């Protein structure tokens, strides 16, 4: 029995250290992209929840930038999710909320700033509680 356990462990070690076929690398890379995208969507949702909880006038650009920043730090999948969510949200808001093209343009600017790695605190209003 111990011999079989040793053979199994040796086989695992050899398989892990062996070169993998390209298709396996692509599957692993795709899995990481999907995992990053899911994490990025969670980051965006957390920023949205915090924005609703804070209910602080003038803080929406900060939360847009922060959500995109956090999502993009996860990698390409997170940045992709942040872009898709931001574009859909702004498209919907511009048609439904009636806040206007200027507000949408400024929101998208904050979204791009956060996704590109810019510090979200650029948009942080004075007086916003430290919790956020």
Automatic annotation (TrEMBL):
GO cellular component: high-density lipoprotein particle
Signal peptide extent: 1-18
Biased composition (Basic and acidic residues): 100-112
InterPro entries in the record: Serum_amyloid_A (IPR000096), Synovial_Prolif_Regulator (IPR052464)
Biased composition (Basic residues): 123-132
Positions of region (Disordered): 95-132
GO terms under biological process: acute-phase response
Annotated Pfam families: SAA (PF00277)
Keywords attached to this entry: Acute phase, HDL, Signal
Origin superkingdom: Eukaryota
Purpose of the protein: Major acute phase reactant. Apolipoprotein of the HDL complex.
Family as reported in the entry's similarity comment: Belongs to the SAA family.
Protein name in the entry: Serum amyloid A protein
Lineage start: Eukaryota, Metazoa, Chordata, Craniata, Vertebrata
């Amino acid at each position: 029995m111990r011999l079989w356990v040793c053979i199994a462990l040796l086989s695992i070690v050899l398989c892990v250290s062996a070169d993998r076929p390209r298709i396996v690398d692509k599957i692993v890379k795709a899995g990481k992209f999907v995992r990053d995208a899911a994490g990025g969507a969670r980051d965006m949702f957390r920023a949205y929840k915090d924005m609703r909880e804070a209910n602080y006038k003038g803080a929406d650009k900060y939360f847009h930038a922060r959500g995109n920043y956090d999502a993009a730090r996860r990698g390409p999948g997170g940045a992709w999710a942040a872009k898709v969510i931001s574009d859909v949200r702004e498209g919907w808001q511009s048609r439904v909320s009636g806040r206007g093209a200027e507000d949408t343009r400024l929101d998208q600017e904050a979204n791009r700033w956060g996704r590109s790695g810019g510090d979200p605190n650029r948009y942080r209003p004075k007086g916003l509680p430290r919790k956020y």
